[in-house]
User: Fold this.
Amino acid sequence: MPVTVIVGGQFGSEGKGKVACEFSRMQSASVAVRTGGSNSGHTVIDRDGTVRIFRHLPTSAILDDVICVIAPGTYLDVEVLLREIAEIDFPLDRLLIDENAVIISEQHKETERASGLIEGISSTGSGTGAALVERVQRGGTVSFAKDDSRLPRQCLGHSRQFLRERLNRNDRSILEGTQGFGLSVLHSRR
Assistant:
């Protein structure tokens, strides 16, 4: 299966963004998938030497002809994504946002600020964790990408079918994970 998965073995800040972009370049990837939330910034340096930090777009967005996918397991801060698209003038025909990505609300951010997690575990307060908790609780109050009018309609779809077709064609895909192993709720003390 032509998939390369980039994950962090520590607590984040291991250089996953640069590694993912370089693997995309070296392996001539046609698809780059970003998962997680807006709580981690991945850094890459574009052709002009400009440092770019992406919290939603895969770092391979700086490469020509790579289709960027925002996966259904993503917790999406729409304003952050739209700002990233605008900053690099990213072509919308190269972006697929899964309809089932969860939208991070201002309430999610406020929940994290009030929880003490910023001070307690150095949380970024992005709202990603609170949005994840809400989704896991299945209370019916989660908002999805398909329901958010701020997102470009032409970018919304189902990533599962798209990715399956790409894999069937043996197109190289890069999966760029966020954060690191040490932040896993399964392996941390808090």
In short: The longest helix spans residues 16-26. The chain has one domain: 3-183. The beta strands are 3-6, 31-34, 42-45, 51-54, 67-70, 75-76, 95-98, 102-103, 156-157, 173-176.
